[in-house]
Amino acid sequence: MAQHGRSGCPINLTLEQLGDRWSLIVIRDVMFGNRRSYGALLSSSEEGIASNILADRLKRLTAAGLLSREPDPAHRQKAIYSLTEASIELVPLLAQMGAWGRRHTRPSRELSVRAGLLEDGGPPLWEAFMDELRHLHLAAPPPERSVFVELQAAYETAMAEKG
Amino acid sequence: MAQHGRSGCPINLTLEQLGDRWSLIVIRDVMFGNRRSYGALLSSSEEGIASNILADRLKRLTAAGLLSREPDPAHRQKAIYSLTEASIELVPLLAQMGAWGRRHTRPSRELSVRAGLLEDGGPPLWEAFMDELRHLHLAAPPPERSVFVELQAAYETAMAEKG
DNA sequence: TCCCTCCACTTGCAATATGCAAGCAGATGG
DNA sequence: CCATCTGCTTGCATATTGCAAGTGGAGGGA
Q1: Could you tell me which residues come within 8 angstroms of residue A130 by beta carbon, excluding any fewer than 6 positions away?
Q2: How many angstroms separate the CA of residue A74 from the nearest CA in chain B?
Q3: Alpha carbon distance A55, A69 (integer Å)
Q4: B136 and B146 Cβ atoms separated by less than 8 Å
Q5: Domains of chain B from N-terminus onward
């Protein structure tokens, strides 16, 4: 039964965890940008997240089990954030968000290249990407195919074409 | 190019339109509950949306092209809200949200039955459902199969079993 | 050891969004 | 003609967001 929220509907419960303007942006940057620390997330933020909002979201997402946090051995005051299985399984959701946004908003061409690849690749590509994320974030064995590199290369090509 | 928002990323642009706690709840109720008027949305709201928030979201979603609004011929002061092609194409996104919520939150059993059917049916079922929504909301020809009735029947069976 | 810089994160405060309760005006129906 | 209903607004308290500045501990060079 639903414990504390507004209702026990799974769509509602997902919205209660992720339905704000920043949570999924943070997860997107960890996932697709491989930004793993507070500083990396703050300074390279395309959308310009405020520092207090970022700190708050890192706490909330960690508490909710969507990120894990461990100290950086090289830098005592730094922490490394990783995706968890729960957030890795957001890949299909983010892919659908990208696909919808590509069709029904006016995205910039460079930034929609990755979304296009993810959409065209469909569930098999998503699975391969999720396996790779399990390797990068959960110490699973490395996958044969690096979707991450493919996505990044496509993005950089598009950026170069743009000039 | 991105016009006014935070960035041209399609995921971000989707979040700017739908990334709040209520917009997708309203769309969900119109879509799966076939609630087409202000009153129906307000009174049967599982989550108890406040009347001012509902009024605001109906305006914003209509302005954004995710709902259309036309006067009810039978009831002069009443309006009928319909999905648009853009919001009908949110079906895969909502299906993924339901699927994720089913796995990673604690939904009530009755309310997750529909999400389970949608997940199991996959893209072919989503397409059939979207065709049906086009019939119900956009005056497209009726489909052969009524996914709507199947989902509703499953939900009601689950409710009856619950007692 | 001293000091300077860097960096993860806080704090203060104004602006905006949310939630609740009550209100209102036009329509409906007897 | 009047009571009621209904779609929607208003007022106001509280929560969330956004911006700018600050803090405090580590790192690192002299």
Answers
A1: A88, A89, A91
A2: 33
A3: 12
A4: no
A5: 10-83 (1.10.10.10), 89-162 (no CATH)
Q: What is the CA radius of gyration of chain A?
A: 16
Structure tokens that stand for A144 in this block = 């044969």
DSSP conformation class of B141: P
Chain A: residue nearest B97 by CA? A11
Burial A29-51, CB ≥16 within 10 A → b, else e: bbbbeebbbbebbbeebbbebee
Taking only the tens place, the pLDDT of each residue in B114-155 is 999 999 999 999 999 999 999 999 999 999 999 999 999 999
Q: Are A59 and B60 in contact (CB under 8 A)?
A: no
Q: How many Å apart are CA B28 and CA B151, to the nearest integer?
A: 13
Residue with tokens 């199969």: B145
Asked whether residue A77, judged by its CB, lies under 7 Å from any atom of the DNA or RNA strand D, the reply is yes
Of the candidates B13, B25, B98, which has its C-beta nearest A105's C-beta? B13
Tokens standing for residue B122? 């996959």
Q: Residue holding tokens 């709040």?
A: B20
CA distance B137 to B150: 18
Facing residues of B79 across strands?
B71
Q: CA of B74 vs C1' of C24, distance in Å?
A: 23
pLDDT in tens, B47-86: 999 999 999 999 999 999 999 999 988 888 889 999 999 9
pTM of the model: 0.94
Dist CA A50 CA A88 (whole Å): 25
B93 → closest Cβ in A12, A96, A102: A96
Query: B142 vs chain A: nearest CA distance in angstroms?
Result: 25
Average pLDDT over residues A117-141: 97
- CB within 8 Å of A89: residues ≥ 6 apart: A130, B100, B103, B104
